[in-house]
Amino acid sequence: MPAGQLVCKEQDLQVNAALRVLVHGYPVVVVRDSDGEVHALGDTCSHADISLAEGDVEDCAIECWGHGSQFDLRTGEPLSPPAFEPVPVFALAIDDSNVFVDVTTVINGAKAPDEALLKKAAAKSAKEN
Ligand code: FES
């Protein structure tokens, strides 16, 4: 079984659409781009506290509705201002149509969520359930 947490089935992911999931309470956006590739990024815009999953997906980018920054789905880099820092891109594996995301493995060099943040997110998630 791949590392990480099972977040959805592959067929849950429409082309050019985003799905917000929680991985141990930490918000992640899982996106299938226009080429059919699947990506997992931190769901919170690096400019302000807005969910990227609520934005539009086009080609290989997702747009934040807050102020219009677009983020490259492969690199997490902002393609347009006002955001200037990347969002983390996480390791993702698909096994027998099951999609797994590992938030402890950041593949783009962006700042990973630290352990304290992951613990806080998990505690908040447990409280809400
Ligand atoms: S909150 Fe995303 S660009 Fe400003």
Describe the 3D structure:
This protein is globular. The two termini are 26 Å apart. The model has no long low-confidence stretch (mean pLDDT 93). With 129 residues, it is mostly beta strands. It has 1 helix and 9 strands; from the N terminus they run E-E-E-E-E-E-E-E-E-H. The chain has one domain: Rieske Iron-sulfur Protein. The longest helix is centred in the C-terminal third of the chain and has 14 residues. Strands 1-9-8 form a 3-stranded antiparallel β-sheet, with no helix packed on it. The chain binds FE2/S2 (inorganic) cluster.
Number of domains: 1
Oligomer: single chain
Corresponding CATH superfamily: Rieske [2Fe-2S] iron-sulphur domain
The CATH topology is given as Rieske Iron-sulfur Protein
Number of helices: 1
Bound molecules: FE2/S2 (inorganic) cluster
DSSP strand (E) fraction? 35-45%
Percent helix:
10-25%
What's the rounded overall pLDDT mean?
Answer: 93
Regarding CATH, which class?
Answer: Mainly Beta
List unreliable stretches of 5+ residues: none
Structural Rg: 14 Å
What characteristic shape results from the CA principal axes? globular
What's the CATH architecture? 3-layer Sandwich
Strand tally, please? 9
Q: Which strand order do you get reading across the main beta sheet?
A: 1-9-8
Q: What sequence of helices (H) and strands (E) makes up the elements?
A: EEEEEEEEEH
